[in-house]
Design a protein that fits this description.
Number of helices: 12
Order of helices and strands: HHHHHHHHHHHH
Radius of gyration: 22 Å
CATH superfamily: MetI-like
CATH class: Mainly Alpha
Strand content: under 5%
Number of domains: 1
CATH architecture: Orthogonal Bundle
């Protein structure tokens, strides 16, 4: 019995031959969805982290409330609020010219995932910034560096090195959480898998999807570890 025959006892290879292209298209949508959300979420999360550390009480309270909400409620609930809520706010959105975006399920998913991951990334970055020795910031101030110069040249480079691994974990969690986008008609990997199953009623398609998620996560994990080793090699030598 050939390896193909053995594999065929577990998986239906005809499904892969017929629908493999659709699954790959779904995988590309998942990658695009996660890449956009993680990048935008990092920018927003950095702003939230700085607001949390701000001496301005209103900024700190607003940032804390935002983070508490998005970390304390399910991402599926947040997605439904955005996706179905946008339809009920069509008139205001048309007034400001945003309805063209919010009527698209993909953008609603990107918007929701951005808001969600920003809350988690904000706490990661806040913790990393707070962990830095205060003496380094004081020394930078003594050298005449302004507030934003200290942040750019002293605080952020060191904080990002500390936050790198937790940010990688958050990225992996976002990849897995992105499967809920299929519930609002986004044809990501899970959405494509559900589409194929609805036509074939073959459970092996979910095994193929699981394998694709596993490969994607493993690629991200190994790439992140390589980047971490490269960026922190001076610490290892020390």
């Amino acid at each position: 019995m050939s390896p193909r025959d053995v594999l065929g006892l577990v998986l239906d290879l005809d499904i892969l031959e017929r629908y493999g292209g659709r699954l790959l298209d779904g995988l590309l949508v998942t990658i695009e969805l996660v890449a956009l959300s993680a990048t935008l979420g990092f920018v927003l999360g950095l702003g939230l982290a700085l607001a949390r550390l701000s001496s301005h009480p209103l900024l700190a309270v607003l940032a804390r409330g935002y983070i508490a909400f998005f970390r304390g409620t399910p991402i599926l609930l947040q997605l439904f609020l955005v996706y179905y809520g946008a339809g009920q706010m069509r008139a205001p959105l048309e007034t400001v010219g945003l309805w063209g975006l919010f009527r698209e399920a993909f953008f609603c998913a990107v918007f929701t995932f951005t808001l969600n991951t920003a809350a988690y990334q904000a706490e990661i970055l806040r913790g990393a910034i707070a962990s830095l020795p205060a003496g380094q910031v004081e020394a930078a101030a003594a050298l005449g560096l302004g507030r934003w110069q200290r942040l750019r040249h002293v605080v952020l480079p060191q904080a990002l090195a500390v936050a790198l691994r937790p940010l990688g974990n958050e990225l992996i969690l976002l990849i897995k959480a992105s499967a809920v986008a299929s519930l609002v008609t986004v044809l990501d990997l899970m959405g494509a898998t559900r589409f194929v199953f609805a036509r074939s009623f073959d459970l092996s398609v979910y095994l193929y999807a699981a394998a694709m998620y596993l490969v994607l996560v493993e690629i991200i994990r190994r790439s992140w570890e390589a980047m971490e080793r490269r960026l922190t090699r001076h610490l290892t030598r020390a």
